[in-house]
Amino acid sequence: MPARASEVPAAEAPASEPVAPPRTPRAPFDPRLLRHARAIRRHLGAEALVALVQAVATVGFAWWAGHAIAGVVQGADPAAIAPDLWAAAAAALVRAACAWLSGSMAPAAAARVQSQLRAAALARIGAHGSPVGAADAATALGPGLAALDGWFGQFLPQLVRTAVVTPVVVAALWLQDAFSGVAVLVCLPLIPVFMVLIGMATERVQREQWTATRRLARSWLDTLEGLATLRLYGRDRRAERRVASLSDEHRTRTMAVLRVSFVSSMVLELAGSLAIALVAVSVGVRLVQGDIAVALAFSVLILVPDAFLPIRSVGAAFHASAEGLEASRAVLDLIDAPGAPAAPAAAAGSGLVVDALEVRRGERWLPPVSLRAEPGELVVLAGPSGSGKTSLFAALLGLAPSRGAVGLDGAPLADADLAWAPQGAWDAVVTGTVRENLSLGADGADDAALEAALARAGVDVPLDARLEPATGGSLGLSGGQAQRVVLARALHRAAAGARVLLADEPTSALDAASEARVLAGLRAAADDGAIVLVASHRAAVLAAADRVVRVGER
Q1: To the nearest 10°, the Cα dihedral for 398, 401, 406, 408?
Q2: What is the pTM of this model?
């Protein structure tokens, strides 16, 4: 038996669980799109050109329409008004044609960009593997990229139109009537201020909605992959309730996004209407006083709404297409994720090596964990609840997104046979006899080996006793006994050749005598040559360890 060691150095133990950094409002356009989707460059250039033509047509329409209306008001000859009417009609047609052209370009550009992003993401996954779970990757590359249709069809053209049309219209107003130009410049910033304030709330609810979508996708994929096993052991109803609960959460989050979008549209319309009304009142007062020509007054009144329309529309389009923007960031994060390092190079017999392993929990990465464990050692991960012990085990089992290096004797841990005793007794028990539970995954197990595993786990139950997880088990098995049956299954797998045994809180809810028997069984598994890794914070378990890795302490 190896001599018991003290705790690992602080450099090998992770710090406390990170607190997610405060989020700042994100830009409405991710510049990484220009790098990974070159088709967007041509699309932006075409949209800018179309927007410039549309801006010139808008100014021309206001000018000619204003003069035509003034001529009608002042009783001018119809023949004198006709040229202005024809010119205004032509400008209106050009403006409508530009709007149609912009709308027709968006779907094709969206398809090209989606294809390029999907190809880049798949190439990254093929070269380095996925930095996120399979469900997250499938959600990002499937419905996530599909959500870009709204972003391309509504938001992006309107963003370009705002950047091009608004300066042209404001400059035209300034040249025609300096007072109106100053009024527009004073009122125009009010709308972006409201957009930023509302955008912060929208980003939060949209991020929550996207997280709910990913959770639903993960649960659905996991249920689909294990449906046959779930039905075999009568656990399909629980999985159905889980999916239904996540579906309801997704519905609630989606409705929250819609509520914010509707409210934000109303606020933007109100701000724009008040600004237009201010300019209209000033023009009306000056018109009554004779300080502005009638034709110029009508031209300004027609043009002023177009100074505010693009920026109001881009705010509304942003909320309508926020899902696509959030999804595009998820795809870009996937593409730009650093390549996963290979398993650490280790000499033969070097045991389990975990080098800077980080586990993803929700939207954040837990602190890196590094440790080494040799065959015959009992290593304990210690830390308070929520510090990441169970998440680390899930990553070692390949059940959680992770990054870092993990190997066993120089080979990937995924190629090794692992024994696993999870926390939560009845969740890990299957409907059937104790014999069927112990031999799960191990064909040809004899009763003597199963009895030895039960003895090491410190539980005395007949092999023919039937376990019913839905009712808490027959024969009056307690939760502690069921937990030790699960541990006996892992001990049996270790005795059958599993190189690594992972046990999550194996002695929780046990008295001192039972705990001592369990620890003796774990020590016996280590003495037989297994690497035993235990997650616990109980003093007796820490005292029995050869090495303690502190998790969640700075």
Answers
A1: 0
A2: 0.48
